[in-house]
Amino acid sequence: MWIARLKLIMGEEVRYISHLDLQRAFQRALRRAEIDVAYSQGFNPHPKTSFAMALAVGMTSEGEYIDVELNTKIQPEELMTRLNNSLPQGLQVVQCKLRDKPHPSLMSQIDKAIYTIEILTQGKNDYLDIQLLIEFFMQQDEIIVERVNKKGKKSSKNIRPFIDFIQLEEVQDQLIILKTRLATGSKNNVKPENMIEKLIAFGGKKINYEGLKIHRIDLLTQEGKKLISPIENF
Description:
- By secondary structure, this protein is an alpha+beta fold.
- Helix content is 21%, strand content 38%.
- The chain has helices spanning 19-32, 76-84, 106-109, 127-138, 192-201; strands at 2-10, 49-51, 60-70, 91-99, 112-121, 144-148, 154-158, 163-172, 175-183, 209-223, 226-228.
- A hairpin with a 2-residue loop joins β8 (163-172) and β9 (175-183).
- Residues 10-192 form the DUF2344 domain.
């Protein structure tokens, strides 16, 4: 048994496909590339693949990760070339590592995610005003987000402990660009759109915005005191 861990880019061309469609597109690419993938047993066998974290519809990314179980060894460079020749435009494998021993699941390893967020506004913005808004926002002890599960049950969660930082990268007339690192994974998870909605509404300093563009820079796993890419420790 061989496990290939792949790092993918998801560009503008595929930003509106669902996670299920992404899984199907990737499985079709594996078949077209004639990769010797291991299949599950049972009535409806399917390729043994495991994605790290689903990317919300509308977002782009340069740091998605997939594990693929293989029956036979293949050189990482050849695997990348054959897959990239079979993947649709907008999806590209940029890194690959192989190992022949079981490894903790991708999902269980993810602790953080880094994003850039572009806020398109209807009016002009002042750099100092936005910087002060972020500083005061981060001084709060609690930032409560209301959630509703699939059964309609409501709950609330304080997401402040799970926001590591928000950096103001750039302010133009009608554009604000932020960089943030948030808890992500099976233990704690903060959606960037929830954090931005709270920031925009904070303290009555509402930003009249038209839309958001969110880009995931990378997913990270905690190793000791360091945060590293899940492919670095594979």
